[in-house]
Amino acid sequence: MDVAANLEQIRNTIRQACQKSGRNPDEITIIGVTKYVTIERTRETIDAGIKNLGENRLEGFLEKYNTISDEASWHFIGTLQSRKVKEVIDKVDAVHSLDRHSLAKEINKRAVQPVDCFVQVNVSGEETKHGIKPDDVLEFIQNLERFEKVRIIGLMTMAPHLDDEDRLRTIFRSLASLRDNVNHENLPHAPCKYLSMGMSNDYQIAVEEGATHIRIGSELVGP
Length: 223
Ligand SMILES: *Cc1c(COP(=O)(O)O)cnc(C)c1O
Prior knowledge:
Elements lengths: L2 H19 L7 E5 L5 H9 L4 E4 L2 H11 L4 E4 L8 H4 L5 E5 L2 H10 L4 E6 L16 H6 L7 E7 L8 H20 L9 E3 L6 H6 L4 E4 L1 H4 L2
Pyridoxal-5'-phosphate binds next to β8 and α9.
């Protein structure tokens, strides 16, 4: 399938989810996750109208960034090793995977401009997943105050890969409620407005539950 056709279907699904939940589709940013695909397919994605791209590994990110940097905004969505921060940090528009204090410290040290970050939260509690425990999120964010180059703009989660709609909904709802808690603190370094949640398998539910950034790979660009 070409990317444009896939995108049309995804936009339809988003529209339906928005209708169901009384939201405006303009509130939702589609991040095209290009980690599986070639530069050509990535260009096709941009041409189809996707201006936000996501990569989860340094090598894949740099390969694409070095070829087509100007045409897109870049989201780093995967685990970021501290020693690799300096290679990406002034090239990305947002980091979705801030999951430890030491990483924030390194970002603060290396970045020239303040960096928009999502705190990754392990809502589902799976041991294999990265992320801060829900109960620790507020304190974690409060402790980032002295890092002036780290701006917490939202929370991110990866739901488990399952078809249990109720379970997924509960996970997304929990992240939204955590985001509200942080937001109510009015922390100057944490204008925590956004929710990065929803992937190919579950973005419809995520949008219904308030996602502002959905990260779509296989449904958009193919597996
Ligand atoms: C790969 C990946 C995605 C996209 O996954 P799909 O199921 O292909 O849509 C989204 N978020 C993260 C963090 C990923 O690593």
